[in-house]
Each structure stands twice: as C-alpha cells, then as structure tokens.
From TrEMBL:
CDD domains: PKD (cd00146)
Protein's UniProt name: PKD domain-containing protein
Organism the protein comes from: Cirrhinus mrigala (Mrigala)
PROSITE patterns: PKD (PS50093)
Lineage top rank: taxon: Eukaryota
Signal sequence interval, chain numbering: none
SUPFAM superfamilies to which the protein is assigned, alphabetical: PKD domain (SSF49299)
Domain spans labelled PKD: 28-83
C-alpha cells in the first residue's frame, strides 16, 4: 500500500482545544498522535482522523501523526502555534472637550494580542458621527 498524508498547521489560544486533522489518500488502520509538548502519545484505530489536545503553555509545537496501512507506516507533521488571548485596555476620560485631539485623550493598550483588529465609532445623540 502506498499512500500519503498531510497535517495542516494551526493557530490556537492557550485556553482552547487544538483540533488536529489529518488528510490521507487511503484509510489508515491506525493513528499515533504526538502533540509535540512532551505529553503521552495518543493511539487510535478508529475511523476518526482528528485529535483534540489542550496545550498548557504558549509556544510553537511540532505535532505529528503516524499512520499505518497494510505494512507501511508514514508520518505527517504540522506546526501548532499556541498564543495567549489578547488583553486589551481602553484608557479614556469620561468626557472629551470639542476640538481636543482624540490621539492625546484616548489610548488602547494591547497586552500580547496577535492579529487583533479594533473597530471604533463615535456617537452623538445615538447617531454615529465617526468610525
């Protein structure tokens, strides 16, 4: 039996489970998952091609899965990037005077967030006047 497999890279939060999924050109008889964080291997012979794992520490891990079919075994690898969720702090006064610069009055501090997008708007009497 000749076959191939791939394990795509993932990016997850340290507070959520990583769902790793392998794609194979044939249906393997068994799987052996190594999550790259020194946790015990997870072996399975079920038809499920996914594994769930929760990483305890942020970092980059090289996950791999060994697949067996017939008398052949292959290994697929992928990277898992585990990040802390962003912690945002908004610093602003309760009241901003007309003609005062917003850049000086309002600041947003990002503690460890990666790929964070901020949407803001200014409202007056319930109507949006700036975005």
């Amino acid at each position: 039996v000749n076959f191939s497999a791939s394990l795509p890279s993932r990016r997850v939060s340290v507070h959520s489970e990583a769902v790793l999924s392998v794609a194979s050109s044939v249906f393997p008889a068994s799987f052996s998952w190594d999550f790259g964080d020194l946790s015990p291997r997870v072996n399975s012979s079920t038809p499920n091609t996914t594994a769930r794992h929760k990483y305890g520490v942020p970092g980059r891990y090289q996950a791999q899965v060994s697949l067996s079919a017939g008398h052949q075994e292959i290994v697929a690898q992928g990277n898992v990037s585990v990040e802390l969720p962003p912690r945002l702090e908004l610093h602003c006064p309760e009241l901003i005077v007309a003609n005062q610069s917003l850049e000086e009055a309002v600041s947003l501090i990002n503690w460890g967030g990666v790929g964070v997008t901020v949407e803001w708007s200014i409202r007056k009497d319930g109507r949006e006047i700036a975005r």
